[in-house]
């Protein structure tokens, strides 16, 4: 009984197919990022935005296929804490960039 | 009811409750995520602040970064296979895939250390400019995590070898380590996207 508890709540259903799908998607996204940069297709701030989009999609792929975070009942707390952490991380990063950009503008440092 | 029977009763009850240690470890990973978020924010601040020294475009070798990425990505897949073998109670399969994962992780670390020594030799050490300080702090912290993950992996493999079969405890520890390993791969996605490719774009 205790054993089945562990496999159900702690260890989500893992399949070879799931890992392979995740791996193939991850490889495609990684190759896309590297190719876009080495082929010189990206430049400036727009290039960074494209890289950010590709990275965000790949993070989602990893979270779903490798970390097995989903909205099922056993995973709800994991999913909620994950969403909260990502939100806080974005507040830290975007907030820092935003504030410091304004500081530089106002101080005429750039 | 005496104290000892009461505690024995409690211990018995605890055995039948689902363990929270995997969720507890997950919570630790979330705080680790915030640590990396602040390091990425720092790095974003110091992008292009080379203080007249060597720039990222001069020194970054994208081919090595691509190989490192491939090694880490493949190690995520092989760790997944170790997890599947563990759930199917195939002890030898777990050990085999853990070994492959460790090799890939060690290969990643070797390349990273080579890259670091190359950068320092080229005069782009952490003390050269704000950019290189932020770079070494961020990528070095990730590398340190991978190193600790490798140590943990070896310890866990030894523990599994010593046990006759994959018990519940081994499964739980493997599940925690798999979260850690996949999490490091996710951090690496952000590293190669924003630190390496982002600095060259």
From TrEMBL, chain B:
Pfam families documented for this protein: COX3
BP term (GO), one: aerobic electron transport chain
UniProt GO cellular component terms: plasma membrane
Entry keyword Protein biosynthesis: no
Chief localisation class: membrane
Key words of the record: Cell membrane, Electron transport, Membrane, Oxidoreductase, Transmembrane, Transmembrane helix, Transport
Any one GO molecular-function label of the UniProt entry: cytochrome-c oxidase activity
Top-level taxon of the source organism: Bacteria
Domain Heme-copper oxidase subunit III family profile: 1-200
Membrane spanning residue stretches: 21-46, 66-87, 94-114, 134-158, 179-198
Location of the protein in the cell: Cell membrane
Topology class, membrane: Multi-pass membrane protein
PANTHER family: CYTOCHROME BO(3) UBIQUINOL OXIDASE SUBUNIT 3, CYTOCHROME C OXIDASE SUBUNIT III
Role: Cytochrome bo(3) ubiquinol terminal oxidase is the component of the aerobic respiratory chain of E.coli that predominates when cells are grown at high aeration. Has proton pump activity across the membrane in addition to electron transfer, pumping 2 protons/electron.
Protein family membership: Belongs to the cytochrome c oxidase subunit 3 family.
Classification via NCBIfam families: CyoC
Subunit structure as annotated in this protein's UniProt entry: Heterooctamer of two A chains, two B chains, two C chains and two D chains.
Protein name as it appears in the record: Cytochrome bo(3) ubiquinol oxidase subunit 3
Organism in which the protein naturally occurs: Caballeronia grimmiae
Gene assigned in the entry: cyoC
